[in-house]
Write a structure and sequence with these properties.
alpha/beta, TIM Barrel, 8-stranded parallel beta barrel, two-stranded antiparallel ribbon, 10 helices, globular
Length: about 375
């Protein structure tokens, strides 16, 4: 998710069912192209028609937000047991079943701290409560283990540990006061959470593939309060010291300009066009050999509050084609997810508009997802 900061920075710095369509195993070589549909995470939405739309665009992978706070609104007695009566899995069961019916792989992204698990140090009326950090990282790990125990037998083998932990919307506090300045707190918080979640998922399914990082593209060079953002390259630098385990590093390289060939060497963002900045940080430490997953990328066709950069529908199609060429040219990138399937009031990078009509980019996505 992006904020208006991105434009300022840019201007200033320039296992499912069988058959031919069965999901590939998570360690299969090559590039996996998928899509995200926010509506799939809404409990009131029937996932069948949504997945039919994704299937109609040849998507063989869907990224789905698995909300800890919605599944475990009350504290479970045995958090590692998916059968604990506190858990409410019904909607996600329906998502996984509907995806399997169409031979679509589900990748779950676990995030959202329930109130009973939250550290009040993350309280901030500017942001949703589910962005507060857990008091105990082990609680996140226990939930991840329960989720993997429930869904690995149903074919879910690919996971992300949290979403955009370098911004306050999803994890708080980002910074803590140190003397007269600010020190980044979120990397340490996240390292503990990611370690617990990784170990929990692997305890349930040793063959699962778990991505960490899952960073948003932009941060603040000069933090001003607890809710300032940590630039993704600085976040990786901190993780190189902390070394939480992960099988892949995930990032969200939303573009802040049209495709470009020059970049500000002091930029506090990493989008698709300066991705080498992130890769250099990965290569500087223990993550040098891990694959890269780009699990949110999209270009809006109208301005929205969280992402003011936008282009015409025709330019969106051109930028999608350009992005696919770039990721196919980089063998380190093994997952590429377009965000998102359909526009809504808060986001406009859908392949479908709010009425459900296809934009020009839909054809390019379908061609890429089917290997064309």
């Amino acid at each position: 998710m992006l904020a208006a900061l991105l434009v300022a920075l840019a201007l200033g710095g320039l296992v499912g069912c069988g058959g031919d369509d069965a999901p590939a195993p998570p360690d299969a070589p090559g590039l996996r192209i998928g899509i995200q549909d926010d509506r799939l995470a809404a409990p009131e939405v029937d996932p069948g028609p949504r997945l039919a739309l994704a299937d109609g665009l040849s998507a063989r992978l869907v990224r789905v937000d698995l909300r800890w706070d919605l599944v475990a609104a009350t504290r479970p007695a045995d958090a590692r047991d998916p059968a604990d009566p506190a858990y409410r899995w019904d909607h996600y069961d329906a998502v996984v079943s509907a995806a399997a019916d169409r031979g679509i792989e589900v990748m779950f992204t676990i995030w959202g701290t329930p109130g009973w698990a939250a550290d009040p140090a993350g309280d901030d009326p500017r942001f949703p409560e589910w962005g507060r950090r857990p008091r105990d990282a082990a609680d996140a790990g226990a939930f991840a283990e329960a989720a993997a125990r429930r869904y690995a037998p149903r074919g879910v083998r690919r996971w992300e540990a949290w979403n955009e932990p370098n911004i306050p919307l999803f994890l708080r506090p980002q910074y803590v006061r140190r003397g007269n300045g600010w020190a980044a707190a979120s990397p340490g918080t996240y390292a503990a959470m990611a370690t617990a979640m990784y170990r929990g998922i692997k305890a349930a399914d040793p063959g699962a593939v778990v991505a960490g990082g899952v960073t948003a593209p932009a941060g603040n060079r000069e933090p001003a309060d607890t809710a300032s953002r940590v630039p993704p390259q600085e976040f990786v630098r901190a993780l190189n010291d902390l070394q939480p385990p992960m099988d892949a590093y995930a990032h969200h390289p939303y573009p802040i300009t049209p495709p470009r060939t020059t970049n500000n060497p002091n930029a506090s963002y990493v989008d698709l066009y300066n991705l080498e900045v992130l890769e250099r940080e990965l290569d500087a430490g223990y993550l040098r050999d891990v694959p890269v997953w780009l699990t949110e990328f999209g270009v809006g066709t109208r301005a929205v509050s969280n992402y003011p950069f936008f282009v015409t529908p025709e330019q969106q199609a051109e930028m999608l084609d350009d992005a696919v060429r770039r990721v196919r040219a980089n063998p380190r990138i093994t997952v590429f997810v377009w965000y998102l399937l359909q526009d809504h009031l808060e986001w406009s990078s859908g392949l479908l508009d709010e009425t459900g009509a296809r934009k020009p980019a839909a054809a390019g996505f379908a061609r890429a997802a089917s290997g064309g």
